[in-house]
Amino acid sequence: MDQQTDVFILDQNLDWQDLGNGIRRKLLGYNGSIMMARIEFQAGAIGTEHSHPHIQCSMVESGAFDVTISGRTQRLRAGDGYLVPADAVHGAVCVEPGILLDTFTPARGDFLA
Hints:
The protein is an all-beta fold. The protein is built from no helices and eight strands. InterPro entries: Bacilysin_H2HPP_isomerase (IPR052535), Cupin_2 (IPR013096), KdgF (IPR025499), RmlC-like_jellyroll (IPR014710), RmlC_Cupin_sf (IPR011051).
């Protein structure tokens, strides 16, 4: 992945990508090694369980989510975070409208397609 963003990323200059089913995303910055994204969920929206080879570290910016990682589920609120090991099955259910701040290493090339 040769693309990368500038060193400063201004939220006002970024467009939301509608992912459907009450979820949308903004890519906040990336290069080949790392990527950060803001994911907004409407109440009841489901981040379907999946896995990927990337390590993911996330923080709940707002709202409340039931996050499941490798069969363990925890209710998380603003300020809470979680770490997803590579290839671990994980997903989230939005309990109260909110935003997750996701960081991946390496960057998710599939998010740029």
